[in-house]
From TrEMBL, chain B:
Keywords: Cell membrane, Membrane, Transmembrane, Transmembrane helix, Transport. Residues 108-322 form the ABC transmembrane type-1 domain. Belongs to the binding-protein-dependent transport system permease family. It comes from the Bacteria. Residues 1-36 are annotated as: Disordered. Pfam families: BPD_transp_1. Residues 20-30 have a biased composition (Basic residues). This is Sugar ABC transporter permease. It comes from Actinacidiphila epipremni.
Amino acid sequence: MVTLDTSAIIDKTPPPAATGIRTSRGYRVFQVVNTVILLGVVVVTLYPIVNIVARSFSGDGYIRSGKVNLWPRGFNLTTYKAVMTNAMFWTDYRNTVVYTVVATVVAMVLTTCYAYVLSKKDLRGRGVLVGVAVFTMFFSGGLIPNYVLVTTLGLKNSVWAIALPNAISVFNLLVMKAFFEGLPQELEEAAAIDGLSTYGTLWRVVLPLSKAVLATMVLFYAVSFWNSWFTAFLYMDHSDLMPVTVYLRNLIAGATNATSVGFSEADATAVGANIQAVTIVLTTLPILVVYPFVQRYFVSGVTLGAVKG
Amino acid sequence: MSTIRTVDPPPGASGAGGRKSARTRPRKPRGATGTKRTWRQALRRDWQLYSLAVLPLVFFAVFRYLPMIGNIIAFRRYHPGGSMFGDEWVGWRYFKLFWHDPSFWHVFTNTLVMGVLTLIVCFPMPIVLALLLNEVRSRKFKRLVQSVSYLPHFLSTVIVAGVVMQFLAADGPVNQALHHLGHKDILFIQQPGWFRSIYVSSELWQTVGWGTILYLAALTTIDDNLYEAARIDGANRWRQTWHVTLPGIRPTMVTLLILNIGTFMAVGFEKILLLYNPLTYPTADVVSTYLYRMGVVSNNFSYAAAIGLFESLIGLVLIVSANRISRRTVGTSLW
């Protein structure tokens, strides 16, 4: 039985020889060094992010003269106001939300259906159905044929160009399959005896029991769609169809030229040197807010996938 | 259909058994002959289950296998707006073109260098970090380090590129530190000499924490009795790590190594696309970015498809041989 047991990774890792039969002096030195190294990892990971946040609240003069490090200097919200009153920023932000929701719904429906089918071990042709999916992990058509295909199908400039080509992640599929395989068969057999169809069993018995894995999968998909930029960059021709990640990309590529993302010439000179920093903060904020609450779901999903993957 | 057949065999034929059926099946699900009765029974009993597989199979057929067939434009001239399978046969023309193109070999070398560097740095570090985390006694501290180090994994590549650029900007923290040391500004992002270091360190920053998860999970499965036995045999901490811990996580290491080798050719396409610029092309341009510019930007689709097919085949050969070597030598394999 496979369960979503995150605590196994986060809490229960027993340090080898925790009983401490011999805590030699060398080992104590190692513990101190180890703590210092790991603190170093924490600092190095957070430093660039904290710097961006500090920059986003700082005054132009301090930024340009390279005086902003870990704390805002010349605190002001001018750039935040400028970005948040920029119409294109909100258009693109709304696009990100729409694309993420649509693509996640499509992905969840297809992935759940297929994972459920693959989890039936006695199903005729199951090996082939698994093979169809797994082979695509190791060989793909490549960028150009995909681009030609999406163009030929006329999906360009629509949400389907983002949702359809990425509808099933094989990794997520295998995670769900592993979870379904771990569910007790007796429940489904009982449901069948009670006269439920396969669809009914899936909808009323299996899915309610799978809330944990469903939540994990929704998070996996939602985060990857929220973060994606290249698909939209490739298939969308107009800036008002772009997700906010592409908005940010144009800002980075255009250096400090804010006219590239819908600021008028007059406004562009008014926005501060920290427009990139502000946009980075505003784009990442939703992820940073939910991150502490959903982190353990991700960890459990990855380890569950590894069991079979 | 005959045109489709001709391009079909290479990818399937080079793989292990079972591949071939996997590739032909979606188009004729009832094709298995000789076992008709059982198939009929299976369909009668499980038709509802099979019906659930229809849409996903359409997805795989259209968006995964059709593009594989679409690679035929590497052998046929393709005009934007024309048939997605090209208009006329040109044979190996596009392959010869890139084979004799010095810029291709330049980006090919760059890809190898970048791939090797990424592998050398980004594969072992999560193992080291996992081993260090495993020695931490305080749960709270361990959890803090884990939560923080996982964070960059959740950031969009665009955000990561933005953070890198701000961090290395003329007014960013790195140049501030150089100033304090009495050094002049370095415009990191514009210098080819810095690109590889920047790319690999940002990759490490983004992946090292997340990469520990599978190792930490594997570490929990090691039997405590093994450590007990090792201690009784007089093994110190270091020897316990060497003789018990590392062998315990070896299957995980090998599996991840094989997967890393399989994605070797595709090195960080999106991030390089965001971080590079014409000034850094000499070191930064790799096969995937080159074919993107050739194909999508300059509309040489067939030429780019030929390069892409070459790249995918190398990837497939790499993962198949890595898997085979690993199965023969250490007994761990993906399939």
